């Protein structure tokens, strides 16, 4: 009897229109060095942000993923719970997308794919990029946390003495991928202070 072929692991990556498109782009770049199959959805607002904040074209970003889908393609595979995935990361996640997901509004493929993760009890990680936050934002965050989503704002770490923005971004992406047990080998992990504590 032939052994059953091992199913390839898939991860959905969403990029919404918040500032910080580089987080989603770097996430895709790092995942290219892993066996994970990536499925990408970019919102219309994110296309504007990518052009404004980076030197990447839309096609450049799409080529980083194994598969990509139009924002309005509600019939795409990632819109169905029967399409098996590890989960989804939205990097960055705008408060507009946050609100739609928290209230169950699936008006586009990005929010529909996120809704699938919640209903199927798969991991949904939201790199919410907004500050300051008002009460409605905070209520949406609590709602999603209670539903099982992980709220992971892209907060930079400084204990590893980053030398540039790229290192800050890569470390944050690595920490988010840790949530899926994907070790990129690209981040410097905390192993205790190397300096004597003040007495």
Summarize the structure.
By secondary structure, the protein is of the alpha/beta class. The chain has seven helices and six strands, in the order E-H-E-H-H-E-E-H-H-E-H-E-H.
General description of the model:
This protein has 199 residues and is an alpha/beta fold. The chain has one domain (11-178): Rossmann fold (3-Layer(aba) Sandwich), CATH 3.40.50.1950. It has 7 helices and 6 strands. The protein has a 6-stranded parallel beta sheet with strand order 3-2-1-4-5-6. The protein is globular. Residues 1-5 have low confidence and may be disordered.
Task: Spell out the blueprint of helices and strands.
Elements: E1 10-15, H1 21-31, E2 37-42, H2 44-53, H3 58-63, E3 67-69, E4 87-93, H4 95-102, H5 109-119, E5 123-128, H6 135-146, E6 150-151, H7 165-178
Parallel strand pairs: 1-2, 1-4, 2-3, 4-5, 5-6
Helix pairs in contact: 1-7, 4-6
Descriptive terms for the model:
199 residues; alpha/beta; Rossmann fold; 6-stranded parallel β-sheet; 36% helix; disordered N terminus
Order of helices and strands: EHEHHEEHHEHEH
What is the CATH-assigned architecture? 3-Layer(aba) Sandwich
Strand content: 15-25%
Q: How many strands appear in the DSSP assignment?
A: 6
Helical stretch tally: 7
What CATH calls the topology is: Rossmann fold
Give the integer mean of the pLDDT values.
Answer: 92
Structural class: alpha/beta
**Which regions are unreliable across 5 or more consecutive residues at pLDDT < 50?**
1-5
Identify the strand order in the major beta sheet.
Answer: 3-2-1-4-5-6
